[in-house]
Amino acid sequence: MRFNQIMIDEFTLLAKFPRDSKMQGIKLHSDAEPNLLSAAQRLFDKGVIDSPDGGYLTDLGLDLIEHVSVIHSALKS
């Protein structure tokens, strides 16, 4: 198994979402890093977030953020 840069960009964006409340989302502005804007569009296309510029996590996104959190906790120093 190997993570490519596209996956890492998507992980990075997912990690920016608040985990304290399902009622909080994020908004990417047009001057955000291009890799994050592209990641947002891909996550939207996959049904992970509800807007191509961030928005809120869908049910799938909420499941994924749990996994991202576990991976982050396991790998951080």
UniProtKB/TrEMBL annotation:
This is TIGR02647 family protein.
